[in-house]
Amino acid sequence: MEATKAAQRMLTVRIARGTEEGSFTTYEVPWRENQTVLDVVTEVQRRLDPTLSYRFACRVGVCGSCAMTVNGRPRWTCRTHVSRVEEDGVIVIEPLRNMPRIKDLVVDMSEFFDKWKKAGNTFVGTATRDDPPAAVSPASRKRKMADAAIECINCGVCYAACDVVSWDKEYLGPAALNRAWTLFNDERHADPKDVLRKATSGSGCNACHTQGNCMTHCPVSLSPTGSIAGLKKNALLQFLKGGG
């Protein structure tokens, strides 16, 4: 009977705790088939340490709220299988970088969203409720430009991956500038020139070093790097035309 029982394989999980960098607690959890990193964090919180703080909602890669740093890389933990990231049976889980830590794996995203406002990302329409819907052709150049960047769900992975954000706390960041690019190309928006002005002023798109970390780490394969390049190009063209 005993000989037929296979020893349960265990996974070692080091999780950042508290509010200070470098403080970790180590846990041992059973290694299961098709186990995700979010499954592991949830098991630790429910069975081993109910004081552990973290965020999650949908569990299926729609909300982006479960983003954490896993073995040094920002990821959606609900879509990251342990078998893809473990190193010799160990995974290290930390909060996203470049944002203040509230507790354990939870970060304060206030500055992330504040930078959206600074990038001029509030849509202002030109139509009223009485007007017919805008006829925007899916084949139009501007619509295609917006389509390439519009699927961002504000998970913060690109912001956490960006080295420029680490160096320059005023830098608007890839997500805010990616959104500015979609709004600049939105034919319904009242003032695309204002979007361009805000996205390029101060530590805006011109502060980007084009390293591509945002593009490499984006869970939905967007290219904020390409969006930022588009903003730079159009700002230059506007300047040459005497409009900047």
TrEMBL record:
EC nos? 1.3.5.1
Give all residue intervals belonging to the 2Fe-2S ferredoxin-type domain.
Answer: 11-97
Q: List, in alphabetical order, the Gene Ontology terms for molecular function in this entry.
A: 2 iron, 2 sulfur cluster binding; 3 iron, 4 sulfur cluster binding; 4 iron, 4 sulfur cluster binding; electron transfer activity; metal ion binding; succinate dehydrogenase (quinone) activity
**Cofactor stoichiometry and binding remark:** Binds 1 [3Fe-4S] cluster. Binds 1 [2Fe-2S] cluster.
Record field: catalytic activity = a quinone + succinate = fumarate + a quinol
Q: A GO term (biological process) for this protein?
A: respiratory electron transport chain
Give the family, as the similarity comment puts it. Answer: Belongs to the succinate dehydrogenase/fumarate reductase iron-sulfur protein family.
| Name used for this protein in its record | Succinate dehydrogenase iron-sulfur subunit
